[in-house]
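Hi team,

Below is the intake form for AraC-type DNA-binding protein from Pseudarcicella hirudinis. Please confirm the fields before the structure is written into the shared record.

FORM ID: S-0412
PROTEIN: AraC-type DNA-binding protein
ORGANISM: Pseudarcicella hirudinis
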Amino acid sequence: MQFRLTETSCNEILYEGSLPDDFHSEKGLEEQKILLDHRKGKAEVTESWFRGMHINSGTLLLYDDLKLKAETDTSVLEMHFSLSGISEQRFEGESKLSSFSHLQHNFYYMPYVEGEVSIKKQNGPCQFFEVHLSEEYFKRLANEDCRILSRMAEMIDRKSAVIMSKQNLVITPQMQMIIQEIVNSPKKGVFKRLFLEAKVLELLMLQIEQYEENNSSKLQLLTIQESDMAKLHHAKFLVEQNLSHPLSLRELAHEVGLNDFKLKKGFKELFGYTVFGYLHELRMQEATRLLQDRRRSISEVAEYCGYEYVQHFNTAFKKKFGLTPGNYR
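The structure came back. Fields below:
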């Protein structure tokens, strides 16, 4: 597998690399760290691979907007998790622009990759976690009785692009914990390989369960006018960007150009949450991430997540996860 990233404004190759077929390693497991330093930003990426599976996690800090051309010479089957930041991409042959925002995930297959990735300069780092599965490995999983896996396997056989969910799904705290376990695993050798494979399969199971649960609850087609779709997505973006000091419902409606009723009804229909239900979900997920940093006090985490009183934060956190922030930590 050969791949290349090119900065499009000056046609400068930022990174070129290769991985063995089926991600096979004679050592059983291989790992490497990649550091990139460029005038537009810097990146730190850690890779691990073994037969059937390639794991990629990294952080990107930008000084300026970045547009990349991404190319590979083989198909890509990717579990993608956007932990922070916002990116947009358009692949060759597709007219539609797709994007990943803070705490979103999806699972997709591309028979080949040649496209553009755009990332705007942001206040903080962009963090991502990806797993690439070989077609052979995936098809062994798809033999099981699972509708979405079977459908994706059929599309792979046809060499047709496919994505698990038309709308990106929200990364749950359980998914975040598994990702942290993978990234921070101290295990070595065969034990680490077994651990990584088990955790990736657990993560894939959670993706599929969430997708099927969301789909089983959809009883009717969307009734939202196409002209309102972009406004609702912008409202979602504004909620994500203002966790500590959220806009009121009226302010949010005014910002995106919808009335209160259309905003409330459309947001729930399109994203499956009320506006403030989504805000609460994001705050709780952000809290689980911040609590992993023991240098932060619980009161600091509560304040960052928009809670004036730490006891209100403790109550909300325990109601959501069944344990207090202190016990979670």
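SUMMARY LINE: The first strand starts at residue 2 and ends at 7.

Thanks, M.
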